[in-house]
Amino acid sequence: MFEIDNQRAIIDRRALMAELDGLAERLSDPTSPGAELVDILKRHLQSGREEIQRRFLGNSRGAQAGLTSAHEASFLVDQLLRVLFDFTTQKAFPLGNPTVAEKLTLLAVGGYGRGELAPYSDIDLLFLLPYKMSPYCEQVVEFMLYRLWDLGLKVGQATRSVEECIRQAEGDLTIRTNLLEARYVWGDQALHDDFKKRFRKQIVKGHGEAFYQGKLAERNARHQRHGGSRYTLEPNIKEGKGGLRDLQTLLWLARFVCGADSMQELVEQGMLTSAERATFDKALNFFWTLRYHLHYLTGRGEERLTFDLQPEIARRLGYTDHAGTKGVERLMKHYFLTAKSVGGLTRYVCAAIEAQLIRKPMLRLPALGILKKELGGFPIEGGRLTIPRGDHFAQHPIDLLRIFAVAQKNDVEIHPTAMTSMSHALRQVDRLRDDPAANAVFLDMLTAERSPELTLRRLSEVGILGRFIPDFGRVVAQMQYDMYHSYTVDEHTLFAIGILARIEKGELKDDAPIASTVVKEVLSRRVLYLAVLLHDIAKGRAGDHSILGGDVAEKLCPRLGLTAEETEQVAWLVRYHLLMSNTAFRRDIDDPKTIADFVDLVQSPERLRLLLVLTVADIRAVGPKTWNGWKAQLLRELYTRAFNMMMGGLNTTEEDRAASVIAILKQELGDWSEADLAAHAERGHSAYWLAFPPAALGRHARMIRAAEAEQRPLSVEFNVDRWRSMTEVTIYTPDRQGLFSQLAGAMALCGANIVDARIVTLRNGKAIDTFFVQDSEGGPFDRPARLAKLSATITRVLEAPEQTLEQLQDLPPLANPAARNFPVIPRVLIDNKASATHTVVEVNGRDRRGLLYYLTSALTKLNLQISSAKVSTFGHRAVDVFYVKDHFGLKVESETRLKALRATLMTVLTEAEPENALQTRAVTVDSWPPVAPSTAAQ
Prior knowledge:
Strand content: 5-15%
Shape: globular
Number of strands: 18
Helix content: 40-55%
Largest sheet: 9 strands, mixed
Number of helices: 40
CATH class of the domain at 698-925: Alpha Beta
Structural class: alpha+beta
Radius of gyration: 34 Å
């Protein structure tokens, strides 16, 4: 079936048969060969596998490396099975003249039936019988299977008569598909021929359309199980969208529906071009090459191209770093572009099948109650929009966009034939870029209320979007090599457009209530949608993608028909699209100066509304687990405080605002006496009263009164806030040096991720420290057993703090070992202008267990007081911000102390970095935020 070079170097069947003949002569009972039969077979199997691996690794960059190895592995198993079959039927259970019922045929099915095997693939076998199982056939099957299992092979097997095969194929699509690929291996050839003849007549003939629809439905369900996108950053190369299984689906359709045993036969039938067949072959071999590397690297049937495996596979395949792009990013871009080409191939094959073999009724529009033959000037075929002739787009280039607009407006599909014609007419898109009418059509589709994401996705899949907007074409399949993002840049952008549309429709009002409200007040939807489309348009270029993206917006927006004012708004939003998240997640928004600095940059309520909605859409589109209630709450608070300041609502003094909070608190504590209220008010100071909402202050008050009454040295309380997806942990205990770091160590020991912290020392010398924590999945740390363990651990750590470091060192440093493959440049930023009362210290480094403990311990040793901490994690990268004072309660401004602070924190950050992977950076910034805040983590 396939040409195998130097077959005997893989397995010499004659030599193996000779060994087994000799074994049979030595055995008194060949039906009980003991371990010797398996030992002989195993030796030849292992030798063949080693030869295949040697050939593959010696030629893994060759044009046919993976696919050739798959054929060689299938050949090896074929030969082994044939020898074992002969030994079983001729030596162990010989029959001089078998009856019809004692005839047996061995068939390969599934992937093995195609003649393709990966190193750790299952071997799917069908023992085919003429009738029901006879005692003789049962002996043969059992003997062979036990030997195969003893060899360590993973065997998927079935024993069926021809009639059973036909009956089961009629009722089960999976069985029908497996039998479609059935290949004769050994045994009675006539029995195999009879089965194939009946299968074609009873199962295949006349059932092409049902099989076609069933396989497409099966494919769509499989795509959803594996993320629904071909651009996930850790793709399943076998089952994922655009992967190996999609190519195999095309082969199944060719065989069942078209009667073609190969893609070449589709070319000969005129249903596929030679270029398209070449694309199929390249994709098939590329996936098989990746699959072989995955199996050999992991020693198991691994099908996911995970972060920890990508760098080594890139190295093996010769992808090197150059032009500012890492080798691993070049590998993954090749993968994503190949997966995209598989989508194009699917369209071509489906178009050919539907055009020549399958006919459907025309579209019926229920609202009109009549059959329609055309929509918007486009004919309807099979219920979908198509074109009147093959050269239509060459004659009418604008219809390359307009057909999508008509499909979007009327909620109909576009026929695969039309999609195929588009892919062959992409050069015509170049004529549309400066056409005002074409740009107006595109802008209408982008801002339409119905399905903008789906429409843009269709445009991108066929290649029009990247050609119409070349800057978008540069980020197609652009990998973001980190553990924070889940998708390529283009896929992230399209998801963000879809999320924006859902916000507008009110579908996310429970998760993002403020954004769902203010989006209705936005003055220009065109500004908002274009800002979302362009916010990451400059990813992957040398320089700050936010600033460069703003430059792109300034050039593109006038072309699309935006006014000068709208263009300025879009460019500003793109340049500052990270401003709101950076401020909310990295700065103390209880500090009035943080809000003032933020308002100085945003300047207007309209920009604030636009920025909030853009930020929500951006974060939610990063990945399925990125958004949570805690982030939502921080953004809500920042928006509300900024809006109030813009409207003049924060002009009162700190003392006046603190007094207002205390008045509200007194209402919360309505059952307290005036004496108790006065005593508690004396314990706090303005910064404390303004750092927490009244409900939290009320909990603190009751906790403190109970602790003082009972003279408890330590009180720990938990408040689970499911709406904000976090748990508030409050500790009341005498203040002492290093308390915060010890508490942070206790949290780390229990697996509680700190996302925010407030550290307050009351006037009575007691600390009321509050930590906001989540579990590893970004949800509230709320299981009773875990809370009990955390409480006990806090007590133990405070009693013996010197043991904390030793306990942390016993834990694996990285929660996910794959994180070590991602470069992180440790960085320390020190800002003395972001706060009127504190020095703000921001550290960026590799996330690891106990990092917050190590950092806060270092700050404590430098005699610095930590007032609050903002803790963020972006995949493998930690961004922790501390508001600190010196032991006199002042900012840290001495250059000597600042230098020591930088050096000490850099030492902590670099301890988790692999050798020779460090480029350290420590800077002092004049103010927060800089002109266009940006971070590689986002």
